[in-house]
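Researcher: Please generate the 3D structure of the following complex. Treat every line as part of one assembly.
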Amino acid sequence: MTEAQFPAHLQYTAEHEWIDGSNPAVIGITATAAEALGDIVYLELPEVGAEVTAGSVIGEVESTKSVSELFSPVTGTVVEVNQAAIDDPAVVNSDPYTDGWLFKVDVQETGDLLTPDQYAAHVGN
Amino acid sequence: MTDQPTDQPTDAPTDGQTDRHSPLHDEHVALGANLTSFGGWLMALRYTSDLAEHRAVREAAGLFDLSHMGEIEVAGPQAAAALDHALVGNLTAVTPGRARYTMICQEDGAVLDDLVVYRLGEERFLVVANAGNAELVARELVTRAAGFDATVTDQGAATALVAVQGPRAEQIVAGLTDAADVAAAQAVRDLKYYAAVPLVLRTDAGPVDALVARTGYTGEDGFELFVPAGRAADLWRTVLAAGAPLGLVPAGLSARDSLRLEAGMPLYGHELDTTTTPYEAGLGRVVKLDKTDDDGAPLEFVGRAALAARRASAPARVLVGLKGLGRRPARAGYAVVIPDGEPGGAVGESARRIGTVTSGAPSPTLGHPIAMAYVTPELSAEGTELAVDVRGRAEPVVVVPLPFYRRPQQS
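Model: Done. Output below.
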């Protein structure tokens, strides 16, 4: 297993999403989550224009073995989704923090976010 | 062969703290495996990627640790008669050196476990049970063999089992025999499907006595190698090194599950359990109601009366294959419904539930979701369009014949 990384410039949720500090904010799932799921084969992401609420379920990430709900770390409006990841979800396994991003939100309000250290502690690293 | 501690696995869910370790545990850790609790054991779920391991088995070869499976030896002058009474199959009819897929049922016909039984000699059999059922099967065999001149010995702790599966398995396993022993390599190549032969295999730490069986659970050609637990790591490392140039990779239980699902093979706890007889599962052929004793009289075996009655009546549900037409796979436990409304739309209030998915996954080989499900018989015909309630949405599926996948050039 590769050592899970928690990039310092990101914030995290207890549900294993990451969010960067830009606006619109880029959101994805952590390497820890991708690794636990195994090979990701299907992504269901919110539509562009959808209003999302921090902490609510807005999609799902499905692997060969299991399926996980995707939570929004923030409240706001979805402005873009990663069509390339929908077409080839394997990129979420290979590059969860870069090419494997999932969606972008025009943020009105953030939910409960964790620092990299807090998230590392949360996942027991 | 040293005795191992005899703490037995149970069927109860475990917290992961009390799981038994395979004799290959250190190998899995060294390979960086993602470990999972399965049947009371801590086993490798995957080493790198479920899909890569699955594809390696379809295209080249995979190496599996199956040491969690139970091995129970039944030996003695009446070993065959004892098994004929204990199991639904006709073990007396099995030639030494051959194996049978069979089941052990309750008096009411319910499946306690599905088994592979190897006849090692005229008076010696090896019963291979599922990990979570091994203790129960061993206990039942002791009970059911009482009164027969046969002894039942649980060899599970002393035995390791590794499987080499895939189109290159024959080449790899033949290569494990001593280079000077041409007959042994030929014995591997000549071994028939569902046959087994004792052979000496070479390891980097010296030769090991193995039972080499041409059996498996992947839909590919392959071999299962039974060796003393203390020698498992030697064999494992030798196979990995010898097989790597041919594309062999270690493969975990995740790939094993997707491979057996494509091959339409049942998994105990999913397609088979104590609410099921072999008939619902489409496996009535394993029940030998016409077994006779030495005098030609019908042979009574545990569950016979219930199974005979069950065969004579129409099944309440049948096991079918479902091909997913959308992208979201059905999973075990999901409801099969009669479609109403748009495919992929919300499952309507009025959607009638007509069955339950027992196993489901995206098929790595076929590229679409597949599932096995129990459905009502009148909606089980090939081509019937149904839907599965995938977390509130009706995903369209169609009934297809099992298996989903057949390997090219069946030998």
